[in-house]
Amino acid sequence: MAINTAPPRLEIRNLVCRFGGRTVVDDVSLTVQAGQVTCLLGPSGCGKSTTLRMIAGVEMQDSGEIYVDGKLVCDTVFRVPPERREIGLMFQDFALFPHLSVADNVAFGLKGAKEQKRERVEELLRKVDLIRHIDGFPHQLSGGEQQRVALARALAPRPRIMLMDEPFSGLDNRLRDGIRDETLAILKEEDAAVLLVTHEPEEAMRMADEIALMRRGKIVQQGAPYNVYTRPVDKAAVAFFSDVNVLQSQVNGALAQTPFGQFLAPGVPDGTDVEIVFRPQHVRLDFDRNGKGPLPTATDGVAARGVVERARFLGNESLIEFRMDYDGSILKATVPNVFVPNPGRVMWLTIRRDRCFVFPA
Ligand SMILES: Nc1ncnc2c1ncn2[C@@H]1O[C@H](COP(=O)(O)OP(=O)(O)OP(=O)(O)O)[C@@H](O)[C@H]1O
């Protein structure tokens, strides 16, 4: 098997950016290969856009380097100007030029002979399925169509890197999924390295080959979406993707006792406070049988009794909130399809052991 030894299309090393003494991007490193989509995912204000702006060359880092195809593009001394970085940009407010036709918008950044430019414009408008609007103007297009023109415009000069900052957030929900999928297919075909900023976990899960989870200026976890989702580094990383339930406990003999039985806490010293974190979809529900629940099992532990406080049907699933007997706290469970038990109903809850995370409190 051939080993790919080519340098990554985009590499950033130890980027730091400070504003007025506040570190907004704090030692961020990552690589993106050609044809790959990496999502910078994190809450508002965590430094995602600033990272993108440094790569684009419109913000200057305080330290760290940026490489494209192994070549230095920018450090604190040397700097390739933004327009020579071969980077395509697509932001939320992707304003098209209102006075230019669709074709001229797409051709805007293109150089070369007229026929070649026309060929590339037609190729891209065919890809985004807007060839029939080639002579139209932006105001004649819907929001989703304008978005696709903006994509075609950004891709026209065959950028080596595409930077996208919340590019779909201006679109209404019904359009968004379709446009995300189409965009992804086109980006893959064009073989650019894509760095996409979003604060929406679903968007990152849908688009990314790799997710870089960012918090307070730092990348706290990086990996394939499946790994980031199923092997989160801490409670906040679990909570970023879904609702969570948390049990408090203390470790004794590498075990944490809870009303749901004991959890393994290998290597955690005795007396350490821990939190057992799990998602609502990993709670199992059982009916009450004359005051009893299911027998304990190795995979699901011990059942605990709860009383339905509230239940709602959400479309694909139902969310049931239980008031738990053991300490009166609320625990959330989701189940597929419709299950809306009345408040006051007694049920027994177990947790899937293999889907729980034990973190130091
Ligand atoms: N030019 C600037 N001068 C001072 N502070 C800035 C500047 N640009 C950004 N910041 C601050 O840096 C922090 C990170 O901003 P940034 O836009 O990178 O975050 P973000 O993760 O992209 O958030 P959002 O999704 O809300 O855009 C914010 O607190 C912001 O107020």
Task: Describe the SSE topology.
Elements lengths: L9 E10 L2 E11 L4 E5 L6 H9 L6 E6 L2 E4 L12 E5 L10 H6 L6 H14 L15 H13 L5 E5 L7 H18 L2 E6 L2 H7 L2 E6 L2 E6 L1 H6 L4 H7 L3 E8 L2 E4 L2 E4 L8 E6 L4 E5 L16 E10 L3 E8 L5 E7 L9 E6 L5 E4 L1
Parallel strand pairs: 3-8, 3-9, 6-7, 7-8
Antiparallel strand pairs: 1-2, 1-4, 4-5, 9-10, 11-12, 11-14, 12-13, 14-20, 15-19, 16-17, 16-19, 17-18
Helix pairs in contact: 3-4, 4-5
The protein binds adenosine-5'-triphosphate (ATP).
What does it look like?
By secondary structure, the chain is an alpha+beta fold. The protein folds into 2 domains: 10-86 and 159-239, Rossmann fold; 242-360, OB fold (Dihydrolipoamide Acetyltransferase, E2P), CATH 2.40.50. It is built from 8 helices and 20 strands. The protein has helices at residues 48-56, 102-107, 114-127, 143-155, 173-190, 201-207, 225-230, 235-241; strands at residues 10-19, 22-32, 37-41, 63-68, 71-74, 87-91, 161-165, 193-198, 210-215, 218-223, 245-252, 255-258, 261-264, 273-278, 283-287, 304-313, 317-324, 330-336, 346-351, 357-360. The strands form 4 sheets. The protein has a 6-stranded mixed sheet, with helices on both faces. The protein has a 5-stranded antiparallel sheet with strand order 13-12-11-14-20, with no helix packed on it. Helix 3 packs across helix 4 (143-155) and helix 4 (143-155) packs parallel to helix 5 (173-190). The chain starts with 9 loop residues before the first strand and ends with a strand. The model has no long low-confidence stretch (mean pLDDT 92). The structure holds adenosine-5'-triphosphate. Adenosine-5'-triphosphate binds next to helix 1. The site of adenosine-5'-triphosphate has 11 residues, from helix 1.
